[in-house]
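We emphasize that the prediction below concerns an isolated chain of 116 residues; any contacts that depend on oligomerization or on bound cofactors are therefore not represented. The input was used exactly as deposited, without trimming of termini.
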Amino acid sequence: MTAAGVVDVLAAACLLCGALLSLAAGLGLLRFPDLLSRMHAATKPQVLGLLLILTGTALRLGTVVDVTTLVLVGAFQLATAPVAAHMVGRAAYRTGQFRRDLLVTDELGARQNDDG
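Result of the prediction step, given as a token string:
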């Protein structure tokens, strides 16, 4: 097998694994019972799935301009997804849009009224 064939197989594996993780994130959004669980499903496997898809695409395309663009897309996703998930989680907690019986620990319970 040539080097190009190995790169194509690696790219296909990355694309397939990324697509499966993104599918798992979508199924988690449909199946999980409350907003906090759905938020976890929307951020963790979706970001890893996107990074695998970007890696597979970078391996397949291989030009410097395309790889640089894909690296920027991945960096911006890694920078914005945790912040967005944190803000959605805080808003859900403050408005009571979660199931308290599903929380293992409630670290914000005593501080909820202290945050302005």
